[in-house]
Description:
The protein is mainly alpha-helical.
Amino acid sequence: xxxxxGTSINTAFVGVSEDNLDDYYILVIISTxxxxxxxxxxxxxxxxxxxxxKEASEKTEEENKDKKCSAQEADREESSSDxxxxxxxxxxxxxxxxxxxxxxxxx
Length: 107
Protein backbone atom coordinates (compact mmCIF):
# COMPACT_ATOMS: atom_id res chain seq x y z
CA UNK A 1 0.00 0.00 0.00
CA UNK A 2 2.80 2.36 0.94
CA UNK A 3 4.54 1.77 -2.39
CA UNK A 4 1.34 2.54 -4.32
CA UNK A 5 0.92 5.84 -2.48
CA GLY A 6 4.59 6.69 -3.05
CA THR A 7 4.29 5.92 -6.75
CA SER A 8 1.14 8.04 -7.00
CA ILE A 9 2.81 11.01 -5.30
CA ASN A 10 5.88 10.64 -7.51
CA THR A 11 3.96 10.52 -10.79
CA ALA A 12 1.53 13.30 -9.81
CA PHE A 13 3.86 15.82 -8.16
CA VAL A 14 7.60 15.06 -8.32
CA GLY A 15 8.34 13.19 -11.55
CA VAL A 16 11.44 11.19 -10.59
CA SER A 17 12.34 8.36 -12.98
CA GLU A 18 15.30 6.04 -13.66
CA ASP A 19 16.76 8.57 -16.05
CA ASN A 20 15.95 11.72 -14.04
CA LEU A 21 16.89 11.63 -10.33
CA ASP A 22 17.18 15.40 -9.95
CA ASP A 23 14.22 15.72 -7.52
CA TYR A 24 14.84 12.48 -5.60
CA TYR A 25 15.57 14.46 -2.42
CA ILE A 26 11.96 15.72 -2.49
CA LEU A 27 10.70 12.12 -2.37
CA VAL A 28 13.01 11.40 0.57
CA ILE A 29 11.66 14.45 2.44
CA ILE A 30 8.05 13.44 1.73
CA SER A 31 8.77 9.88 2.89
CA THR A 32 10.40 11.11 6.12
CA UNK A 33 7.58 13.54 6.92
CA UNK A 34 4.93 10.89 6.26
CA UNK A 35 6.78 8.42 8.51
CA UNK A 36 6.77 10.92 11.39
CA UNK A 37 3.12 11.96 10.90
CA UNK A 38 1.64 9.18 13.13
CA UNK A 39 3.53 10.67 16.09
CA UNK A 40 1.17 13.65 15.89
CA UNK A 41 -1.69 11.38 16.97
CA UNK A 42 -0.04 9.95 20.08
CA UNK A 43 -1.79 12.52 22.27
CA UNK A 44 -5.09 10.81 21.44
CA UNK A 45 -4.05 7.67 23.32
CA UNK A 46 -5.05 7.61 27.01
CA UNK A 47 -2.30 7.71 29.61
CA UNK A 48 -1.94 5.20 32.44
CA UNK A 49 -3.80 7.30 35.03
CA UNK A 50 -6.79 7.76 32.71
CA UNK A 51 -6.95 4.01 32.11
CA UNK A 52 -6.76 3.25 35.84
CA UNK A 53 -9.47 5.82 36.59
CA LYS A 54 -11.76 4.30 33.96
CA GLU A 55 -11.15 0.77 35.26
CA ALA A 56 -11.90 1.89 38.83
CA SER A 57 -15.15 3.57 37.79
CA GLU A 58 -16.24 0.47 35.84
CA LYS A 59 -15.42 -1.73 38.83
CA THR A 60 -17.49 0.39 41.24
CA GLU A 61 -20.32 0.52 38.70
CA GLU A 62 -20.26 -3.27 38.45
CA GLU A 63 -20.22 -3.65 42.25
CA ASN A 64 -23.21 -1.29 42.55
CA LYS A 65 -25.07 -3.31 39.94
CA ASP A 66 -24.30 -6.53 41.84
CA LYS A 67 -25.53 -4.99 45.11
CA LYS A 68 -28.70 -3.81 43.41
CA CYS A 69 -29.34 -7.27 41.97
CA SER A 70 -28.72 -8.86 45.38
CA ALA A 71 -31.17 -6.46 47.02
CA GLN A 72 -33.79 -7.23 44.38
CA GLU A 73 -33.32 -10.97 44.90
CA ALA A 74 -33.67 -10.53 48.66
CA ASP A 75 -36.89 -8.56 48.14
CA ARG A 76 -38.24 -11.29 45.88
CA GLU A 77 -37.35 -13.99 48.41
CA GLU A 78 -38.97 -11.99 51.21
CA SER A 79 -42.17 -11.42 49.24
CA SER A 80 -42.15 -15.08 48.19
CA SER A 81 -41.82 -16.22 51.81
CA ASP A 82 -44.62 -13.79 52.82
CA UNK A 83 -46.84 -15.28 50.12
CA UNK A 84 -46.02 -18.80 51.26
CA UNK A 85 -46.82 -17.90 54.85
CA UNK A 86 -50.12 -16.36 53.77
CA UNK A 87 -51.02 -19.42 51.72
CA UNK A 88 -50.08 -21.71 54.59
CA UNK A 89 -52.30 -19.77 57.01
CA UNK A 90 -55.15 -19.74 54.50
CA UNK A 91 -54.79 -23.50 54.05
CA UNK A 92 -54.83 -24.02 57.82
CA UNK A 93 -57.96 -21.92 58.19
CA UNK A 94 -59.63 -23.78 55.35
CA UNK A 95 -58.78 -27.19 56.82
CA UNK A 96 -59.89 -26.05 60.31
CA UNK A 97 -63.20 -24.87 58.88
CA UNK A 98 -63.69 -28.16 57.02
CA UNK A 99 -62.95 -30.06 60.23
CA UNK A 100 -65.47 -27.93 62.15
CA UNK A 101 -68.07 -28.43 59.40
CA UNK A 102 -67.49 -32.19 59.44
CA UNK A 103 -67.90 -32.25 63.24
CA UNK A 104 -71.04 -30.14 63.06
CA UNK A 105 -72.57 -32.36 60.40
CA UNK A 106 -71.89 -35.45 62.51
CA UNK A 107 -74.03 -34.12 65.37
